[in-house]
Design a protein that fits this description.
Strand content: 5-15%
Largest sheet: 4 strands, antiparallel
Number of strands: 8
CATH topology of the largest domain: NADH Oxidase
Shape: elongated
Radius of gyration: 24 Å
Distance between the termini: 40 Å
CATH superfamily of the largest domain: NADH Oxidase
CATH class of the largest domain: Alpha Beta
Number of domains: 3
């Protein structure tokens, strides 16, 4: 990756912070207070740590001109107690109203998701937003039909004879659940997206080694932003499971996605907000 990096020696105070944060060890300093040097700039992963950490703006990086660098007023950041309360308050609220999700709220959720870290700073996470009612209905129908195809396969006598012994949970939990989804869908009830008015698909290029981890980090950022906006978010596990069954990638091709959808977030305006949070099971921590 070809980048240009320079140090403005007049502005540099030789604090060495850029040396300490650079993951590629491009910045060098022989001893405390010595001039900052550069080496192997082709190894730069364009993370921006050097430009972000410099207190005097002495680092010039071709990918981060001045207009892309912004000061942080840390007095405006939420307190640890506020962040933890947000985490405690977050729930999948499936009681949704008919109101559309404001576009400005979707944009904030997308930006929060986009700002999540990615492996090697590759930033390969992409987003597809679905708000068209017909397209959302297609998602629901595809999910139900695909899961019922899976049920048909699982109920094959030969397959059932083998799998039920190896994985009885499939037949005790998932087969009845998938049948219930189909039953309710035929009645006009949506148990897949629960009446959500927007759906964010988070996808990465096919074969991306860390695609799933990167996408789910993005999901968590977006999920917390949604909670802060009082917007309901639902992790669409059934839809993601159906996509994995679609070996020919027919559905993804129909909406122009070439990569792999690693996570999907359904969004809707809640009928009400939860007034309480509840305790989870006691935390289990190994301390070594």
């Amino acid at each position: 990756m070809s980048v240009q990096i320079r140090i403005n020696t007049d502005a540099c105070i030789r604090c060495g912070k850029c040396v300490k944060v650079c993951p590629s060890k491009i910045m060098t300093q022989e001893m405390a207070g010595a001039p900052i040097g550069l080496q192997h700039t082709d190894n730069c992963i364009v993370c921006g740590h050097c430009a972000a950490v410099c207190p005097t703006g002495a680092v010039f990086h071709s990918d981060f001109p001045k207009e892309t660098i912004h000061p942080i007023d840390r007095a405006k950041l939420p307190t640890p107690e506020q962040v933890l309360l947000l985490c405690r308050a977050r729930r999948s609220n499936r009681a949704l109203s008919d109101r559309p999700v404001p576009q400005e709220a979707i944009d904030l959720i997308l930006e929060a998701a986009h700002r999540a870290p990615t492996a090697s700073n590759l930033q390969q996470v992409q987003f597809t937003v679905i708000t068209d009612p017909k397209a959302i209905e297609n998602v629901i129908r595809f999910t139900v039909e695909t899961l019922m195809k899976a049920v048909k396969t699982l109920e094959n006598p030969l397959i059932k004879l083998i799998l039920k012994r190896r994985n009885p949970f499939l037949y005790e939990r998932y087969v009845p659940t998938f049948r219930k989804l189909d039953e309710e869908y035929r009645k006009g009830n949506d148990l897949i997206l629960r009446g959500a008015k927007a759906l964010i698909l988070i996808h990465t290029p096919r074969g991306s080694r860390f695609g799933a981890a990167d996408a789910n980090l993005a999901y968590q950022n977006g999920s917390l932003m949604a909670e802060s906006l009082n917007i309901s978010q639902i992790y669409t596990g059934f839809f993601c499971a159906a996509l994995k069954q679609d070996k020919k990638r027919t559905f993804l091709k129909s909406i122009g996605i070439e990569g792999d959808v690693q996570a999907a977030m359904a969004l809707g305006m809640p009928q009400f907000l939860y007034p309480n949070y509840i305790d989870k099971k006691p935390i289990e921590v190994n301390r070594i």
